[in-house]
Structures are given as C-alpha cells and as structure tokens.
Amino acid sequence: MARCAKLEPIPTAIVHPCDEVSLKGAVRAAEARLISPVLVGPEAQIRSVASSHGMNIAPFEIIGTERSRDAAAKAVALARAGKVEALMKGSLHTDELMHEVTAAETGLRSTRRISHAFIMDVPAYRLPIIITDAAINIFPTLEDKRDICQNAIDLARALGFPEPRVAVLSAVETVTAKIPSTLEAAGLAKMADRGQITGGLVDGPLAFDNAVSEQAAQEKHIVSPVAGKANILLVPDLEAGNMLAKQLTFMSSADAAGIVLGARVPIILTSRADNLRTRLASAAVAVLLAHSRRQAAAATLAAE
User: What is d(CA 224, CA 210) in angstroms, rounded to the nearest whole number?
Assistant: First the structure.
C-alpha cells in the first residue's frame, strides 16, 4: 500500500456494488488514491445504498444495468475495451462474475490458466508469502499448475519480491507414485529447470514444514535453494490451499490480500468476510500489477 502512494490510481470497474460492504470498499480505495471506481450495476440501488450509509459517490461514474449478471458482462466489456484496468467484485456471486470473465468469445481469458493467489503477512514468518491456488482451480492438472506457478512468480516480481522461491507442496518431500501430487511437484521442478517456468526458483515436492523452516529442512537433509525460505506455496488442490490460507488468517492472525491472475486484467475477488484493510490491500496489489503491465507493454513497444 505504501508503494502505491507514488502511483496514479487505476480505473477499476466495481461489479454490482449493491451493499454497504462492497460499496464502502470501493469508496475507501478511491479515498486512498488506489483506484478510480466505475460503478456498474442498478443505479437506483447503488445510490440508495450510498445514501443510507452516508457515502459520497458523486465523483464516480455509474453505468446502469438491471441484473448482477448484466453488470458482470458490462464490466468485462469495459476491460476488453481498455476503459478499465481492473475489476473488483461487489455483492454478486463469484460464479456469476467468473462466468463472464472466462467466456470463450467475450471474456478476459489470456493464454494462461486463470488462478487465484493470496498474498499473506504471517506474524510468525519472516517473509511475505503467496499461497496459490486456494479459490478457483479445484483439482488442477500438471499443465494447470504450470500456469498457476508462472502466474504466482509474475505476481511476486510485480510486488517486488527480490527472488520468487516456489515450494510445490505435498504431504512428504520424497517422490512416490502413491501420492500423485509428489509426481506433479517433481514435474514442475523439472519444468523450471528446462525453462518451461521462468523468473523464479521452483522445488518440490516439499512438505509444509521443510518449505518454511530451515531447521526442518536441515533435519531431513534436504539440499535446496527453496526449502526453509519459500515465499510462494503452490498447494496440491483448492481444498488444501483454502484450509491453509484460512488457518493462517484465523489462527495466526495473518493479514491477507487476494487477487485473480491469468486474465487480461487483475480481478479483486473480495469476500463478505473481508475487512476494510484486506480490501484495500487487495486493491493495492491490483494497482501494482496494473502498473507492472503498463511498464511491460511500454518496454515491448519500445523494443519494436
């Protein structure tokens, strides 16, 4: 959030902000000069929520739609047209928004698999850490995990991680056909060796303890540039990732921000349970990603 103070706010479509929580998150993010909101949804309902809770939305553009699905489709169209650089989920169901995002002809798919990442500050761990994928891909294949891994590495670099180090997690740190996730972890590590994953160090399989504890890694005689100092945890499946992220949040008092990656624009996928700090932090992540993409596009243009 501090890094965003020097950056200009990014135009962001707020999709169906029709309750206090989602509208207030957008208003506060605008006040923090993170985003320039474009409110997409039923105009009368949005204005009623703002009036009822004393929120000033006069500076913001409102694009009226009748239903939440219409709002999702319109927001995606704005992103495709380059009129906004990010989307923020409002008070609609996640599947409604993602249905429009992933639509084959009209959505925001890129060449990558779409994935989700939690960026977490865990008091007991000395490094900021990314957990992926804990929200979108239920049982990702090896090819899916390659994209999930690359998305997370690119995010880490945009956030200024000095060296992304990916621990591909499983229950054990040895490869065994009895646990398929160990085979996929070994495959991802070899993909990184062969240049199929770039920009970071990748190793696995690693159990959670020897991914984050150098002492645990030493006790098990694991020689690895990632073991004990991972800053990206790639989980076997959504269930494992979701439980890990929530355990860190509710039992270790971790702060978290969440973002959807792999689409044409970053998507701030908030939950009703998210507090204001989480919403602002998630918006800040989207800002850093958007500005990183601007710089990459400018560099490509200059090279041509």
Answer: 10
